Amino acid sequence: MTLPVFDTAAIEAAATSQLVFDAVRGALIAHAEGRTLVPPPLHMEFPEADGDCHVKAGWITSATDFTVKIATGFYGNPGLGIPSNHGLVCVISARTGQIRALLDDRGRLTAWRTAAAGALITHAMARPSADTLAVFGTGEQARLQASWLAKLRPISTVLVHGRTLHKANGLCEQLNALGQHARPASAQEAAGADMIITTTPATSPVLDAWHVREGAHVTGIGTDMPHKNELPPALFHRARLIATDDHTQCLDHGDFAHAVRAGSTAHDSDIGAGQLLKTPPDRPESAITVADLTGVGALDAALASAILDQLLR
Questions:
Q1: What percent of the chain shows pLDDT beyond 90?
Q2: Could you tell me whether strands 36-37 and 157-161 are parallel, antiparallel, or unpaired per DSSP bridges?
Q3: Residue range 47-59: average pLDDT?
Q4: CA angle at residue 307 from 301 to 310, to 5 degrees?
Q5: Computed from CA positions of residues 62, 63, 64, 69, in that sequence, does the dihedral angle turn out positive or negative?
Q6: Which domains does the chain have, with CATH numbers?
Q7: Which of 16, 114, 218, 233 could form a disulfide bond with 264, CB atoms 3.0-4.6 angstroms apart?
């Protein structure tokens, strides 16, 4: 039998934002409850090309499938006129070990599940009245975080901070075309928003902890390898509530790890992001909250299986 291979056009036709949100939310809760099998990710770095590769696998207990995913990020690609992210997902039967399908998604599923996880946890941890958002970064993930969070709550203004004003203006144009009110901002102004999401491959903090105001929520999604670092350790020291998508991963190669090594917070000061999605936190209005998301293979498994089911129908 010929192995089914689905391309990006088919995958995009089968996916809806609600399907992605439901799959990611369910997987985060399952992971927080210990109902997943997620081995440590494999990392490869390509410094000369400013690139990296992750190989992640995951299975949700009792699910019929598990997945193995290859995801690459080569951050100079936009200068060559090609996307910075690429990859594919292999869906495998957890009953027989046979490969069910290849999803040649070119990194779409990774982008969607990252956007959904960031939006879900930001919405859950931010104050109900929070309506200003700042994104650090100007790439695809910055755009997705802003647009997907807007599916969950009203956003009055999106402040965009990038390495160059040209790139910040470019993202603002994209967001404004989607009906959002976006404008460029300095790092200090952006750090004063109600909600902050960092989406960069930075190797040193992109904001000052003391520019984050009381009552704000910060989600970091870019620190997914040991050498990366977006959020300053002092921010974790100020935080009343810290969430991680995977405690062990975040202790190894997340912003949480940098904070623990710096002595800014305890190694057990975090709570599972899925636990907060299942039982929303009771947060004081003045509390600073932080989420560190490093990406969990169980999310890839849940989303790939859900989309494959749609494709096979």
A1: 91
A2: unpaired
A3: 94
A4: 140
A5: negative
A6: 5-109+298-312 (3.30.1780.10), 117-295 (3.40.50.720)
A7: 233
With a CB cutoff of 8 Å and minimum separation 6, the contacts of 207 are 136, 187, 190, 191, 196, 198, 231, 232, 235
- What local confidence, expressed as pLDDT, does residue 282 receive? 86
- In this predicted structure, the answer to whether residue 1 has a pLDDT above a threshold of 80 is no
Question: The tokens 């089911």 sit on which residue?
Answer: 309
Task: Give the torsion sign (CA, 297, 8, 17, 191).
Answer: positive
- Mean of per-residue pLDDT scores for the chain: 95
Of 23, 30, 20, the residue nearest 278 (C-alpha):
30
pLDDT digits (tens, 9 = 90+) for 262-282: 999 999 999 999 999 999 888
Task: DSSP letter for 245, please.
Answer: S
Confidence (pTM) = 0.94
CB 119 within 8 A of CB 180: no
Runs of H (alpha helix) within 36-94 = none
The Cα–Cα gap between 11 and 306 comes to 11
The CA distance from 201 to 51, in Å, is 10
> In the chain, what is the straight-line distance between the N-terminal and C-terminal CA atoms, in Å?
18
Of 226, 264, 278, 271, whose CA–CA distance to 245 is shortest? Answer: 271
| Nearest-angstrom CA–CA distance, 260 and 42 | 23
CA dist list (Å): 288 to 124, 133, 136, 151, 198:
13, 15, 18, 23, 16
User: Which residue's structure tokens are 């921010």?
Assistant: 235
Query: Residue 161 and residue 189: Cα distance in Å, rounded?
Result: 9
